[in-house]
Every structure is written in structure tokens, then in C-alpha cells.
Task: structure prediction
Amino acid sequence: MLAKAPQSFSAFTKNAVPFGLYSGPVADMKTDLWASLRRGQRKTWMYAGAFSSQYYVGFAIADAGIVATAFAYFFDSNSGQYVEEKATVPFAFGSEFDPDLKTTWSLKKFSITRDGDKFIYSYQGKRLDIKMTVVENGQGSTTIAPAGDRPFHHTYKNLLLPTQVEAKVDGQMVSFGGNIGGLDFSKGYPPRHTFWNWASMNATTESGIEFGVNLVGDFNNSIENALWQDGQVSQLSQATFSYTRPVEKSIWQINTLDGVLSMEFKPLGMRGESINALLMLSRFKQPFGVFTGTVRLNGINHKFTGYGVVEEHFAKW
Result:
């Protein structure tokens, strides 16, 4: 069992940051103690994805201090149709912007609001309208990670979330849902130079057991790696990622060193972006597609199929 997340960032001091993986969110995420770092070092983003055997949807708004970005995309694996719309706005969020899990985000036509236990991700654009409702149960995982000479990095992630998507894509209505949602709220001070691989999926074993997995390689190493099953989060060991470039054409091999998880990822499509804002550089490729492999649950190995994303990310924050 994981320990509960720290109550407040304000309790952190330079020599006493409680690095590790925890259950549930941090209650008080104010970053007043590091106000001078708000523009130059603090990065915050709110992301959600919904992935089924046919449809893939991603949505995010990010505040990188000197620039803000947002995107929404929709992919139909049956037809191959991919539609993405995005926005980039310098200094879009004010100096006082200090978001937590209850904060309303708004950038151009993108918005994220909280209504009780639901997150509502909304966008209305030229080719794509999306309303994605994700039910947050408070049973996610919090990571407090070291960040070199910076204060700390933090992320809250949750998977297997009940999610409903209503979309209009090139004039056609699409509706789907189930325990297919995942969210990522990150707020912290990542190292100046950062590289990571990431994998996030919701999966079902051949015997019908649902589980979710979040893995990160290099950045944060094993601190962030977690598995969701039956409302509980457990820690996984360090993960290894093996693939070739171009990443969207490669079959990825992903394993945990504890032997719990061994899987293959086959991309069906990809979202990528490169942002160069002088003092900040972010370059990533995020294929979405199908995971297959074996997982050990309660001492028994199971074959599974899952849906989600992997990522290769280089950043200079």
C-alpha cells in the first residue's frame, strides 16, 4: 500500500522534500514559496486521454511560464481519420496563476472545468468539437521527484476512469465511453534539460480483469511507475523502453525490471509537436495505439490487450 500524498507543497524545504510515489492528490498545491520561479522554471499542464479499440482522443492545456499551449485530437482507427486543432499563446496565464485540481483552465477555445467529481474538457473548432467528461475518484498516484538544482517536480495521474466523449468530427457525430479515461496534472520545476519515455494505457486481461499502467523511463525513473487495479495503486519497478526511429513506425518493447509487466506497443498514429520559445524548447512525439503482453496480477500471469499512448520527449525548460 502506498502512503498518502503530502498535504502541502509549503511544507517542503530544500533539505526535506519527500520524494516518492504516493496515493491520492496533494491537498494544497500553492507554490507561493517559489513565486520568483513562476515564469522561468514552473511548468504546469492538465492532460486527459480516452482510448478505446476504435477511437483515440487527447486533450491538454499547458502553462510553461512564458508560453501556453493547448491541443485536442481525434483518431478513428477504423477509417484512419485524424483531426487535430491547437493553440499557442505567449504569456497567456497571469503571474498569479497557481492552479490545482479544482482550477478552471481557459485558452482560446479550449477549456477545462471541474464539476464535483467530474473534469469537463471542452473545445469547439473548425473541424473538431469535443466534450469529454472524466470522473475523478481521487485514487490516483502522486509523484514528488527530484529536479536537479530546482525545488522539485510533481505529477498526479489517474487511470481506468469512467469517461464519456461526445465529438463532432468534420460534421459527423461520434459518442463513446467506458472505463477508458486517464488524466495527468503536472505542476513543478523539472530540470533544465529533460528527456523521457512515457507509456500510459488502460487494459483488460483475457479473463476480463481491468487494470491501468503509467510508466516513465529516464526522467523520474521508477518513482512514477504505477499500476491500477480494483481501486488500488501499486508501485512498479524501473521500466525499459526499446524502439527505433521514426518512433511512429517502430514496434516498442516495454518491460519492468521486476518482471510484472512485459509488453509490445504498436502505433496506429501519432501526435507530435516542436516548440522553440527562445528560453524554452519542447520537442515530442506521442504515438497512440495498441498494447499487448503479459502482466502479473496477484501472483498470476495474464495476457492482455490495452489502448493508450507512448512518448519520446526532449525539453529545455
